[in-house]
Amino acid sequence: MYIDKIKLNNFRNYSEQEIVLDKNINIFYGNNAQGKTNIIESIYLCAIGKSYRTNKDKEIIKLNEPYSKVEINFNKKDRDGKIKVEISDKKIISINNIKVKKMSEVLGNINIVLFNPDDINIFKEGPSKRRRILDVMISQIRPAYVYNLNMYLKTLEQRNNYLKQIKYDNKSEEMLEIWETKLADYAEIIYSYRKEFVEKLKEKIVDIHKKITDNKEEIKIKYISDFENKEQFIKALEKNRKLDIIKGYTGKGIHRDDLKLYINDKDIEIYGSQGQHRSSILSIKLSELEIIKDEVDENPILLLDDFMSELDKERRENFLEDVKDTQIIITCTDKLELKNENKSIFYVENGKVSF
Q: Is residue 315 scored above 80 in pLDDT?
């Protein structure tokens, strides 16, 4: 799997740009705030259907322009394709010039693994970011997951709204049963997807992390959820009704799930060094790469935003050897010197890419 070509129109700081990529390594270098990360974002947008940097699509549109458009031509072993994302008053996504109706139609066409600098802090921050990363990882190999997650969140919002109506408008509590049954149905599906994926992560990550740390560290990953089965979950919701009514929101559910990480049996959130956080995230991303490869029988595209410069020359070459036969998009401030001859190097300055 690889990307042939990227076309950008009014995307972030790009007016009009066409980039032809190498099947192997692609290095985009230049000073900060010139547009390197915007290229990574454009690929992510076409692969996942939304940005990882903003929840507001209009922020992607170049200043003082009415629209933004990204087109990506990609190749897979069984087909070629083109994904186009157009953003103006609304967002329109097309695959091979056919407009998609559901986000699940976008997912899985271009499989990616993204490493960006903010990922290093996910085990220092709250669980919401860890859930988001988990959701993106699962959605690429299980597109139906997105539909069930969205339905769960929609039902959760409805229950929360009704909790407030009970509190302020004296509505009947009996109506909560409708939302609780629906919540349990969707929660069961989401829980099973998450549990399955984390088990696959566990299988991969131990050996990968040992290799990265020269056998000095043992990593363990744990999925935390208060969901066990539908019956137990419905009982938990019923038990917490009074408290939920007082607070005005649902305190139990898979919307509070979390991932915990341990290095040599110590919680990385409390005891982990900056280096351990970095190597742990790298282990997770490489595990994700292998899981996707197992599922789709092709290597996903690896997006490395400001990552390679953190490694010394030896570790850099070892890392690239581990991910050979993978198309890699690298951004960095300095021009990297690599032994691999199968590469393209691009210079980025003020929203312009030169080869």
A: no
